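hey can u run this one w/ protoporphyrin IX containing FE bound, need the C-alpha cells asap thx
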Amino acid sequence: MSDRHQDYENLQIDELNYNSYLKVPELTSLQQLRSEPRHHDEMFFIVIHQSFELWFKEILHEIDLLAAFIDEGNVSRVLKVIKRIIAIMTCLTQQIQLLGTLTPKEFSGFREALGTGSGFQSMQFREIEFALGLRDPWFFQFFEQHPHELDHLKARAEQPSIYDKLLNTLKNIGHDIPDSVTNRDFSVPYEMNERVVEVIRHIYDEPQENYHMVLLFEALIDLDTMWSTWRSVHILMVSRTIGARKGTGGSAGAAFLESRLPLRFFPEIWEVRNAEWNK
Ligand code: HEM
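ok here u go:
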C-alpha cells in the first residue's frame, strides 16, 4: 500500500463524522431495559424520558445565557433566548402526548421495573423550576440518598433566580425595587411584594416609556403559560395511564399534580395583568 493510501486510510478512521461527533454508539447503548421478560414498550418509555432529560439539559444551558443577558440589561437578546426556551417547551408538551399510545395494560406490564423511580427525582426538572424562581425545599427529600445531586440543587437554590435578576436589573435602571427584595436570602421562597407589583403596574400603564420591558414581561407570561400547559398535558396523560392510582414516587398521583397546577414562576406579573379587570 502506498504511503498516500495509508494516510487516507488513517484519515478515514480518525475523521470526525456524524456518529463520532454525536457519540451515537454511546447514546444508543444507554437504553437498558429492566423488565423480565423484556416488555416491548419499556424501550419507548425509556427513550421518551431520556430525550426529556436531554432537552432539560438544553433548557438549563439556555437559562444560563438568559441570566447573563438579564444582568447586562440586554432586552432584545433576552427575548431571543426566551423564544427558544418556549419553542423547546412547546416541543416537550407535544412529546408527552406520545405516551397516550401506551395503554394502562401495557404500562402495568413493566411498571414494576421502575421500582420507586419517579419524575420527583428528575434533578434537572427541579433545577429548571428553581432557576426560574419556583423554590420549594420539600423536594430536597427526593435527593437525600444522592448527596451530589442534593448539593447541586441546594447550590442552585441559593443563587438568584431569573426573576430575582430581572428585579435587580429594574432597580439598576432606576425603578423603585426595595433592597429587602434584591438583597434577600434567595433560598427562601419568594413572596409577593406590593412595591414590586407597583413598579410592574407602572411599566404596563405607561408602555411608551418602556415598551421593550412590557414585551419582556409578556414573554415571561408566555413562558409561564407553556410550563403550565406541560403540567396540564402531563396530568391528562397520567390520568389516562394510571387513573386515580398513586404514583411510583408515593404521591396521590394525578390529584397531587393538580395541586401544583396553579403555581406560577412570575406571580407578580400575573397579578398586574389580572388586576386590570378588578379596577
Ligand atoms: C406513563 C408515563 C408517566 C406517568 C404514569 C407519570 C406519572 C407521574 C406521577 C403520578 C407523578 C407524581 C409523583 C409520583 O408520585 O411519582 C409524576 C411526577 C412527575 N413526572 Fe411523570 N409520569 C409519566 C411520564 C413522565 C414523563 C415522560 C416525564 C418527563 C420528564 C415526567 C416528568 C415528571 C415530573 C418532572 C414530575 C414531578 C412534577 C412536579 O413536581 O410538579 N413524567 N409523574
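The longest helix spans residues 40-72. anyway lmk if its weird
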